């Protein structure tokens, strides 16, 4: 049974993506920092007939993240889809004049180095099988920086660059790397959470370009 690992799994988009892939026969590995919440989400998925387990891991702690992904692959099956979508810390949404080197370093570790550790963990099996998908979910600052969101405006473009390079390098091996950009807050958009999850599924099932905008950048609105 194929497995999707969702890094940054939460009760909204993460849960919706888990249900969508679960309907297609995927097992689901849920990763975030809160084991209790993960256990509750996994129980709800299992009640719907979807094999699922939660694995507590902090993307800022590489050893935790790598161990969680390896445990998931051993217990649920080879990870054939990786979604990297941890929710940025509120501290990353500071004005640029308040940004510090320490903030920038942490944001880079969160968005780029965490992703790199995850990719390097799951990629060997994907390359052996010559199939797999890596999905990035980012906000609008991955496309256009905002002076009031300094942390993500620095880190998301670097994450996007890494993803775009992977997209080019891995396409000949049958491995897709795709990014869904969601400008603004999902509750403020014209799509339901399940419709956004459907778009994520389509990026996996019908691979195309690296970047897909859920809505035009200028239509995105951030919560106050």
Number of alpha- plus pi-helical segments: 6
Spell the H/E element sequence.
EHEHEHEHEHEHE
* Chain oligomer state: single chain
Global morphology: globular
What is the spatial order of strands in the main beta sheet? 3-2-1-4-5-6-7
Distance between the termini: 42 Å
Q: Helix coverage percent of residues?
A: 40-55%
Radius of gyration: 16 Å
Class by SSE composition: alpha/beta
What does this structure look like?
The chain has 6 helices and 7 strands. With 224 residues, the chain is of the alpha/beta class. The chain has a 7-stranded parallel sheet, sandwiched between helices. It is globular. The model has no long low-confidence stretch (mean pLDDT 94). It comes from Demequina capsici.
Considering the chains and any ligands shown, give keywords for the structure.
single chain; 224 residues; alpha/beta; seven-stranded parallel sheet; 6 helices
Q: What is the gist of this entry?
A:
This protein is α/β, with parallel strands linked by helices and 224 residues long. 45% of the residues lie in helices and 18% in strands.
What is the strand and helix layout of this fold?
Elements: E1 3-7, H1 13-22, E2 27-32, H2 35-47, E3 52-56, H3 62-76, E4 79-84, H4 101-129, E5 132-139, H5 150-170, E6 175-182, H6 193-205, E7 211-213
Parallel strand pairs: 1-2, 1-4, 2-3, 4-5, 5-6, 6-7
């Amino acid at each position: 049974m194929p497995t999707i690992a969702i890094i940054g799994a939460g009760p909204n988009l993460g849960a919706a993506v888990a249900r969508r892939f679960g309907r297609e026969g995927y097992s689901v590995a849920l990763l975030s920092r809160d084991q209790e919440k993960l256990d509750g989400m996994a129980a709800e998925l299992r009640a719907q007939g979807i094999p699922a387990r939660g694995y507590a891991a902090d993307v800022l702690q590489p050893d935790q993240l790598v161990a969680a992904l390896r445990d998931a692959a051993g217990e649920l099956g080879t990870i054939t889809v990786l979604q990297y979508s941890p929710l940025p810390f509120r501290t990353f949404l500071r004005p640029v004049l308040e940004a510090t080197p320490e903030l920038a370093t942490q944001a880079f570790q969160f968005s780029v180095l965490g992703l790199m550790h995850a990719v390097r963990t799951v990629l060997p099996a994907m390359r052996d099988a010559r199939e797999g998908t890596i999905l990035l979910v980012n906000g609008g600052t991955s496309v256009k920086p905002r002076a009031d969101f300094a942390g993500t405006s620095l880190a998301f473009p670097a994450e996007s660059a890494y993803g775009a390079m992977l997209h080019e390098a891995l396409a000949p091996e049958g491995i897709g790397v795709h990014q869904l950009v969601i400008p603004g807050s999902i509750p403020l958009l014209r799509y339901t959470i399940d419709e956004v999850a459907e778009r994520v599924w389509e990026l996996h099932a019908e691979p195309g370009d690296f970047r897909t905008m859920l809505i035009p950048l200028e239509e995105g609105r951030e919560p106050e």
